[in-house]
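Write out the 3D structure for:
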Amino acid sequence: MHEIIAKGILSAQNGMNIYRGCTHGCIYCDARSTCYQMDHSFEDIAVKINAPELLEIALRRKRKKCMIGTGAMSDPYLHLEKKRKLTRRCLELIDEYGYGLAIQTKSDMILRDLDLLKSINRKTKCVVQMTLTTYDEKLCRILEPHVCTTARRIEVLNILKEEGIPTIVWMTPILPFLNDTRENIQGLLSECKKAEVYGIITFGIGVTLRDGDRQYFYQKLDQHFPGMKERYIRTYGDAYQLPVPREKELMNLVRQECTKAGMEWRSEKLFEYLYQFEDKLAGEQLSFFL
């Protein structure tokens, strides 16, 4: 871990990343890719210690309220957040200034900030996005080794349901020859239905690999699944997009089960929902992009 003084915190689309890098250890993580030009080890987390100050300045300057997103490139609930509490401080500001929140994580640490999530959701809209890829707990511990497993994340989704906080599940990536089974997809969808999630984001059924991410992924395949790397190379070469062999069948399953359960599966509709600010007190809706 090392501290940095950031020059800015919000992107043009009102997204923020308080940390850079990750300690969850997911073997497929795209954020390891060299195209993001990280100048330090991925596990050596860059901590933007002035993130709350920058966020407060940005929120004060905005002409209209909007949704603030976080978690797209770095999980806001990394292990060091337990002590640093920068995410919590930023949520306090979002709540104080009356903005909405779209937050994405794999960690049950988000429950620490349940009071703030509820407060934001009472006034505007707070949407929690949780990643679920692997129903089998043993396999999940290999693919996502340093964060709570799927079973615990499902518990979190159900707690949020009871508290009236809307949720969206990122069911991605699904790894060819590892968790690309009908049983895995069905198991995840069944739990999402019970938790009454708003929708499921997939971007198709498969994974993407590029320089930096690919090497780490193949190293972990060699460690845990001997011979699997060679199968990937034979099947996909050096392709960026790696759809699973049964993608059409599994996507049909997602669409059918989501439709029956009343869960949205169309990505464009889900992002529209995430980006739409709601002023519950005034009964207004304003754009994420203002």
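The mean pLDDT is 95.
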